[in-house]
Write a structure and sequence with these properties.
269 residues, alpha/beta, 6-stranded parallel beta sheet, 3-stranded mixed beta sheet, globular
Amino acid sequence: MSKVVGFIGAGQMGEPMVVRLVAAGHRAVVYARQDAVRERLRAAGAEVVDSVREAAVSSEVIIACLFSDHQLREVLSGPDGVLATAPADAVVVSHTTGAVSTITELAAERPDGPVLLDGPVSGSADDIAAGRLTVLLGGPSVAVEAVRSVLSAYASTVLATGALGSALGVKLVNNALFAANAQLVAVAADVGRQLGIEEGQLLAALSVASGNSYAADSIRRTGGLAKFEKRAAPFLRKDVAACLTATADLGIDLSGLGAAIADGPLDLS
């Protein structure tokens, strides 16, 4: 069943999400700042509006796909924010990877307002375009089920993880493991070079061998370590920092996982 979906944050990941939502038959009401993005989304069939309030006020589901906790607070809080202007029976999904404390504090601001779910994602813009993204969802099961069909427009896996904040916990562990694996691939590539094996050849061989991993395959598909570091490192740095902060606050030692991230050749600090 089609729904009215408010969408805020039509960037590298958000724009293809909106395109998939429209293609699935949903009415996508989108707030975007960049003129070029606004024109592309309008051409794709989205309804482009000029404020967060307009995107939220009549929507059944509101999706925020933002880079940082700071941006999420700006969009969700305040008298003109999503939580204050969306219908009380709406569901708000945050695709932002950030601190668990941020999402729980935001939910506490409007206990009688729309339900807030943490919904971090795993995958790339290409995965979104192909409809094979993974979305983790933390929050009340009724709200999770209410948005499942909407998120399935661009996600092949929508996984409930438990209470509010649990999805971010899973995502932070996932990102730490991915970062550690990427560092190990970089170390392996250096060993390969010392053995006279060209990086591309090594990555191609690993892709059909037992040493392959999602990180190794991502690096190969991106075009090698240099391109991967340039494209992915800014996001990985943010995610690693969030994981380190969260685990430090809880007194959790990342041990070997943290050592692999910190000591590898990629700049993820």
